[in-house]
Specification:
It contains ten helices and eight strands. It has helices at residues 4-7, 15-26, 28-31, 38-42, 55-64, 98-107, 138-147, 174-177, 187-190, 194-213; strands at 45-49, 69-73, 113-116, 130-133, 153-159, 162-168, 221-225, 230-234.
Length: 237
Amino acid sequence: MPSSNQANPAHNPNATKNASDLEAKRLERTSVLPGWDAEKVAQTHVAIVGSGGLGSPLLLGLVASGIGRITLYEHDTIELHNLNRQILYSRPDVGQPKAETAKKKLQALGDTTIDLAGTFEPNTHIDADIMIDASDNFRTRYLIADASLDMPCVWGSVLQYGGQVGVFPPGHSLRDLYPEPPSNPPSNAIGVLGPVAHVIGSMMAVETLKLALDLGQPAQLSVYDALSATTKQYRLR
């Protein structure tokens, strides 16, 4: 019969060591990258709004890379039409809350601490190192822009066969790029190619990790066009 320590990993002094050894082994292909600092990444706290088409690949990329803590703002439930692009979920998840489902699946991947924060409301106080806007409507986007002026903010959007990724330094926001909300029709009216959302979400994860490590140059505005297979870079005035 096992001892109480063996039966309960929380009281096993080797449990934490074994878990950290497992995580180090999982991340060994990342840890050999030039300029990579696993400890810095593990100490980084990001706030993310949205776990849908952009948020799914973004969250997977960050947890897979060993990000330390995520505060996730999400209040939607999973619908069948989400599944062409929201790769965190599958058909058995339809009808379930996105946030709880995402947390369960992400914790099966890595050791990231994930806090669920519900809806992103006006005057929300953000306690994080980096803000990430993976939302899907401009009302929320401008709330995020106004609430995150004292920290870097990674922003992405996707529509049909293309998308955009931007990184706003402290003191700047989406309002510098779009002072007024663009008049784009909603994605449910003109569509989104799922893999394009995956490209943009993954680019957002890369920019977030670069910020965490102070590695390379952050994108100011990257515009991706899948049909021409091009990514153009723009500098913001």
